């Protein structure tokens, strides 16, 4: 649009007294001053242009309620904007704005302020005067501090501050009583805040409230010693502590970790710092287990012996392992600091040198310095001590403020651990009561201590819930006894519980024996750490037996080819998870990944009913998921190949790929997992990145090129879009599932011959069941954030039978029924009680209209899940009860449809084929679901007023770190 055309349009708008003007998606570079003449204008859209400046004349639009200028090149907000006293919504995201003018405080009608994706470094305290503000979006900026004045925003419901430079949260934020949503992900929060933030807003507020009472400064840092065996790590820690030199000191046993503290003083700042020294054993077999205890932020000492040389001491491998486990490119201030230390007479007998420049080139700024230290003569020790103190003072975790009560509990636990290796849950609560700490705060602190690695506690596990392990290193020693057992090695990792007890309580170990009462706890803890799982043996009299995954055979079992057969009606799909270094982009291996997957995926093992049928080895495994098909997973030089054969392979393949990607991202922060699709050309071994395929699809590019054979391939073929054709809409799926419901019940009642039952099912029913599961998992994954604070699954129905005849209703009563997110069933059905988890709540038309899209999505998803869920959990239900629930779900769909007429946001969800492409984060259904977090939190608030327990649902956490709300019957599954 030219300037002349724009002026002509403004003249027309003035004459006709337009209230709305949409000039988005043009090439406008300048807003003319004449815009001030549009006194009737209420809505002005100018987004997606090339505007670099907002003219001061815009202040004369006194009727303006909505101003949208996102996706432009604006660098400043003029102070004159403060004169827009009617402004309710201001959209300025995706610009180049560096500051918020204090004058913005005069926008007393402002309800929504969108400023994310800019270059803002400060939030002005004056923002506190925006008393009508409900939503504040400031993610993806450069903000380092939240002003305490923000507590005055009493109407604020949503606060978005992700991807900034915030390290601390003012306790005043607890005064935001309307706050339902707080996003702080990808900020350099101090360790305590980060861990408690991940537990949800409720626990964060409890923690911050305790900080208001009294604060204390914490000057502590973790000091971790790594390296091969017998290079002098233990002697170096002893020398730093000032302990007496011990000639021929015994080596640290296996994965045993010796934890001892030392205090150093930084001479420049006169700051006293406590270093918690972790001394690891160095044998190669324990390298995988070491990683469980690596954390960030911490200082790492990579120790090597010049007599043996840097190559034999594998210095680069140890540094690489630290980097892969702890390096997070999004958290610059919280990266590991690594010092490379040569010991054992390195000053006088430099028998070998290390290539310092080569290591610096490889690991960039992670390596802080190189030192030579003689632990016997202490030569070079003072220089190292000064360096350690200086590094520590520069770390953001030093001088961090914590609640005084938190420090009291931390010190008490440390004192207890000097005497006891474990205490009961009741004893912990007694300690807190003695220290006069509120019970709710005590439980929050227990979660925090567990997250930060000060102790080990799993409150939902029936075996572990009454026991708190005070010494995490205690577990590591117990693991080492198992990994070193020749008998367990010779049996390829199988160990009876009796064998494990004998290893842990061997009289020859002296003080290193463990009482029998702890043996079941150790077994459970090894399962929790993805080290082992209990197997099923065919002999009913067989003793309880665990598999230690790290000791499985090196070769594929002979029967694997007989099990990996393409069945009639099945299709095959493959994805490849390529793992690279986040900095260099070079392909790397996630050490121990396959072992963890063997444990994590054991519910899908071919031997889940008879271990002798298992099919796994050091580099791969075969899995079976009934109607969802079979999977072959294998590590090929660091690339994880995942192939699924099934009637509809996308479902199981998507789940496995997502689990593997999630595990790598969560555990190995320095690695970047990406999915690839194999090139379909028979003679080509090239891989095409999945994100690139999706981006091309979004840009409506039909083909993508293989980087190896250089041939173009159709995207729809690569993504297997045609596996589900357009006729497979929601109604057809429900019809198929209902038709075969009794058949599914019979199948699940015949668990002894499950394979035969699955084979007898038609391709149609297997496909329908898999798609139902895929839809359900997609919904939960997309709504993962609101699950921190409350359940996501419910159905809603109007109580007023004439609801559909109402026109302009203001408030109406509705019946809300909660569902279990594990069994996918409503609580009344699980509890055999019509009133269980059912609430009558009066809802406003405004809330219901906002919530309609997500209610519709949930209702349609549950309609798909219900006929599959009932047979799976073997709950007896007759057709009358089933149809009653189905009708209630249909009420939810119809009642929301009555408010969604003319809104096609959800059309794709249940009818059109292209919505099956869940990978596209830009799809309408994804956007609608993700935008519903605040709506769900409002519902959580209403439900808690009726029943704080949410019908008895318990919040659990799966191994990916996602929260779920499940019936007590299923808590032990997590």
UniProtKB/TrEMBL annotation:
Residues 737-764 form a coiled coil. Residues 214-395 form the Roc domain. It catalyses: L-threonyl-[protein] + ATP = O-phospho-L-threonyl-[protein] + ADP + H(+); L-seryl-[protein] + ATP = O-phospho-L-seryl-[protein] + ADP + H(+). InterPro entries: COR-A, COR-B, Leu-rich_rpt, Leu-rich_rpt_typical-subtyp, LRR_dom_sf, LRR_domain-containing, LRR_R13L4/SHOC2-like, P-loop_NTPase. It comes from the Bacteria. The keyword Nucleotide-binding applies. This is non-specific serine/threonine protein kinase. It comes from Crocosphaera chwakensis CCY0110. The lineage of its organism: Bacteria, Bacillati, Cyanobacteriota, Cyanophyceae, Oscillatoriophycideae.
């Amino acid at each position: 649009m030219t300037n002349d055309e724009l002026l002509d349009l403004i003249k027309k708008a003035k004459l006709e007294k337009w209230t709305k003007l949409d000039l988005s998606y043009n090439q406008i570079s300048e807003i003319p001053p004449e815009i001030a003449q549009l006194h009737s204008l209420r809505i002005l859209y100018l987004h997606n242009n090339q505007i670099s400046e907002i003219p001061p004349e815009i202040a004369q639009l006194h009727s303006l309620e909505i101003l949208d200028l996102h996706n432009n090149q604006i660098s400043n907000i003029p102070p004159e904007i403060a004169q827009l006293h009617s402004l309710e919504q201001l959209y300025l995201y995706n610009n180049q704005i560096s500051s918020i003018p204090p004058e913005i405080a005069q926008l007393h009608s402002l309800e929504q302020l969108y400023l994310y994706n800019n270059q803002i470094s400060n939030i002005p305290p004056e923002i506190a005067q925006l008393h009508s503000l409900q939503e504040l979006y400031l993610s993806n900026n450069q903000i380092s501090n939240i002003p305490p004045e923000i507590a005055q925003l009493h109407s604020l419901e949503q606060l978005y501050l992700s991807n900034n430079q915030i390290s601390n949260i003012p306790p005043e934020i607890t005064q935001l009583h309307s706050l339902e949503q707080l996003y702080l992900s990808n900020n350099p929060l101090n360790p305590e805040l980060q861990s408690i933030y991940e537990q949800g807003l409720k626990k964060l507020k409890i923690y911050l409230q305790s900080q208001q009472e009294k604060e204390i400064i914490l000057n502590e840092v973790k000091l971790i010693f790594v390296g091969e065996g017998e290079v002098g790590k233990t002697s170096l820690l002893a020398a730093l502590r000032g302990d007496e030199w011990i000639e021929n000191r015994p080596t640290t046993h296996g994965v045993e970790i010796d934890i001892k503290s030392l205090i150093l003083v930084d001479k420049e700042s006169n700051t006293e710092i406590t270093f918690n020294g972790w001394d690891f054993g160095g044998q190669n077999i324990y390298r995988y287990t070491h990683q469980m205890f690596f954390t960030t932020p911490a200082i790492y000492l990579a120790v090597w012996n010049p007599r043996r040389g840097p190559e034999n001491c594998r210095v680069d491998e140890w540094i690489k392992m630290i980097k892969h486990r702890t390096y997070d490119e999004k958290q610059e201030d919280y990266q590991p600091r690594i010092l490379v230390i040569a010991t054992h007479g390195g000053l006088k007998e430099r028998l070998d040198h290390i290539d310092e420049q080569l290591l610096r080139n490889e690991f960039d700024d992670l390596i802080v310095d190189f030192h030579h230290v003689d632990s016997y003569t202490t030569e070079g020790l003072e220089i190292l001590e000064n360096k350690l103190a200086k590094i520590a003072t520069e770390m953001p975790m030093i001088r961090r403020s914590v609640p005084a009560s938190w420090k009291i509990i931390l010190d008490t636990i440390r004192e207890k651990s000097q005497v006891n290796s474990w205490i009961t849950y009741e004893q912990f609560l007694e300690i807190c009561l003695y220290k006069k700490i509120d019970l709710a705060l005590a439980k929050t602190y227990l979660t925090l201590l567990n997250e930060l690695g000060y102790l080990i506690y799993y409150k939902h596990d029936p075996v572990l819930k009454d026991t708190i392990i005070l010494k995490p290193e205690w577990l590591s020693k117990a693991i080492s006894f198992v990994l070193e057992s020749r008998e367990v090695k010779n049996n390829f990792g199988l160990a009876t519980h009796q064998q494990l007890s004998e290893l842990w309580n061997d009289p020859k170990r002296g003080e290193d024996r463990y009482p029998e009462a702890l043996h079941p706890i150790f077994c459970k803890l090894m399962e929790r750490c993805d080290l082992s799982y209990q197997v099923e043996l065919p002999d009913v009299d067989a003793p309880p037996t665990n598999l230690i995954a790290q000791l499985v055979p090196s070769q594929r079992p002979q029967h694997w080819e007989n099990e990996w057969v393409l069945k009639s009606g099945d299709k095959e799909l493959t994805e490849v998870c390529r793992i690279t270094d986040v900095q260099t982009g070079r392909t790397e291996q996630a050490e121990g990944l396959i072992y963890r997957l063997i444990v994590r995926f054991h519910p899908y093992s071919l031997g889940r009913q008879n271990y002798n049928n298992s099919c796994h080895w050091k580099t791969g495994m075969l899995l079976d998921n009934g109607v969802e098909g079979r999977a072959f997973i294998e590590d090929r030089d660091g690339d994880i190949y995942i192939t699924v054969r099934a009637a509809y392979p996308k479902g199981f393949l998507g789940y496995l790929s997502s689990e593997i990607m999630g595990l790598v991202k969560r555990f190995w922060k320095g690695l970047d997992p990406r999915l690839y699709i194999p090139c379909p050309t028979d003679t080509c071994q090239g891989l095409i990145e999945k994100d690139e395929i999706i981006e091309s699809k979004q840009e409506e590019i039909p083909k993508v090129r293989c980087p190896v054979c250089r041939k173009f391939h159709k995207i729809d073929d690569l993504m297997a879009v045609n596996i589900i054709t357009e006729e497979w809409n929601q109604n057809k799926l429900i019809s198929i599932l209902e038709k075969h419901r009794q058949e599914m019940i019979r199948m699940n009642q015949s668990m002894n011959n499950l394979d035969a039952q699955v084979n007898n099912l038609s391709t149609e029913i297997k496909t329908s069941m898999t798609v139902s599961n895929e839809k359900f998992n997609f919904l939960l994954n997309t709504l993962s954030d609101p699950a921190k604070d409350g359940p996501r699954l419910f159905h809603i129905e109007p109580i007023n039978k004439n609801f559909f005849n109402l026109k302009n209703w203001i408030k109406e009563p509705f019946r809300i029924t909660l569902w279990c997110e594990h069994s996918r069933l409503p609580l009344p059905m699980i509890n055999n009680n019509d009133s269980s988890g059912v609430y009558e709540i009066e809802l406003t038309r405004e809330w219901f209209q906002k919530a309609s899209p997500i209610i519709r999505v949930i209702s349609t998803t549950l309609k798909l899940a219900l006929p599959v869920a009932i047979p799976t959990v073997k709950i007896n239900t007759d057709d009358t009860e089933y149809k009653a629930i189905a009708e209630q779900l249909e009420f939810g769909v119809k009642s929301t449809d009555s408010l969604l007429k003319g809104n096609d946001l959800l059309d794709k969800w249940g009818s059109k084929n292209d919505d099956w492409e869940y990978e596209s984060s830009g799809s309408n259904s994804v956007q609608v679901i993700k935008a519903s977090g605040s709506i769900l939190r409002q519902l959580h608030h209403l439900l808690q007023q009726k029943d704080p327990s949410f019908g008895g649902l318990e919040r659990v956490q799966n191994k990916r770190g996602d929260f779920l709300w499940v019936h007590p019957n299923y808590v032990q599954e997590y």
